[in-house]
Amino acid sequence: MSAQGWVALVGAGPGDPGLLTVRGKELLERADVVVIDRLGTEHLLPFCRPDATIIDAGKAPGQQALTQDETNQTLVDHARNGLGVVRLKGGDPFVFGRGGEEAMVVHANGIPLEIVPGITSAIAAPGAAGIPVTHRAVATSFTVVTGHEDPTKPGEQTDWNALATTPGTLVILMGMGRLAAISAALVAGGRPADQPASAVQWGTTTRQRHVHATLGTLAARVAAEGLGNPAVVVVGDVVGLAEQIDWRTGRPLHGRSVVVTRARAQASDLARELSLRGAEVIELPVIRISPLAPSPELDEVIDRIASYRVVVVTSVNGVEILMGHLAARGCDARVFDRDALFVAIGPATATRLSEHGIRAGCVPDQFVAEGILRALEGHDLAGVPTLVARARGARTVLIDGLIAQGALVDELELYEAVPEVAEPEQIARAVAADYVTFTASSTVRHFVEMVGVDAVAQFAGRTVSIGPVTSDTMREFGLSVDAQADPHTIPGVIAALQEDATTQAS
Ligand code: SAH
Q: Which of 12, 158, 365, 425 is most buried by its number of CB atoms within 10 A?
């Protein structure tokens, strides 16, 4: 009997990955199939299982979107096949997302259904711009309405005349395309033209922008400043409070755009920390970590695993993939020699080892191959069986150095970095950014490959490197190194960038 399938309609929240619910994240981590809309749900893909099937129901460029019927059918079909399906919808699934229709179809087919609410952009986007939708003595209610309907056409369901005189705050979603007509209809219906009004684009995300104006001037200001979709329009006196509540513009990296060039699955730590400091983060995953298929060499190493007295791991990915191979054979950290010395290249790798119950006995001060060699200088490695588990294509310094110290070295290649493909718009944003960060030599190489040598030569922003090896590679590819992290860690990169930004500003 196949497993029981299910469908969950999960609200993805307004755009900041931190604003997904705990329940939503749990279901995403579990789902076999995830059906997304292009707008507003992509940022949650890192939470999905690596082997989950991702189906894009939205409109990808040059690609046909699924019709609503096809989307409904997709949910039903996969669940009928015994799969767990998450239908991710931007904001809250029942606020203008046609979530109700999908839920009805799933339920009518007798498939187990769960609804997980999400934080709607109707409240979150204003809040992120410092606008409370209600406020004591200013607004005791708020009305959320779609601006999708044309106010100049008779027979539409939205009664703009009534909305013009409804007290409280008016929040309009999908209203940017008809902003001038909507504003005019509201003024014609009796809403004062000088009432404060605001448009907040990409609310809660690192690309957030807003225009605070009045009902009479908003459409022109939005056009002048080039604001577009997705945006929430807020009309009401509460907009006037934004000046006193604005919590985003004072942050240390506010107004700086920073490119984060890491492997797709890893981008989040650095990106999150930077955006918490107010930076506009442009994530440009240039590589993807691709585990190598099991091989006879792998089997040989695993058969001998208990014989290694020194085990060197050079990345978090290395730890995960190595432990995964052990787990696939029903083993865990206990298969290692209990006196084996584990060498982790840096603190993040050591932490990941400890999560698997392994204490790193040696973490060098310099998180590079040379640092490992120096850290091991005091140890007598002559004739000692040593395992180096790492990426394909890494430098030979480490292996050569260990052999020179007399160690009997087995090198195990666990994964390789494969190039990612980016959309032209992403690349254009990256090249125009204030900063690019590099956290490994491989990302430098792939970045240059992705954006092209000419674009790199024209890059006018500043660069931050995680350490000397990465810096050398940057120079080799014609990039200047404006700041280098010390220590050579992600927190080090953030500190170096922030210091550089402060110096540049003063
Ligand atoms: N279910 C969603 C709304 C879907 S309709 C929710 O609850 O938020 C799509 C509209 O939502 C967009 O046209 C825009 O008006 C608004 N929207 C979605 N994300 C937004 C964001 N991050 N910032 C501003 N508006 C957003």
A: 12
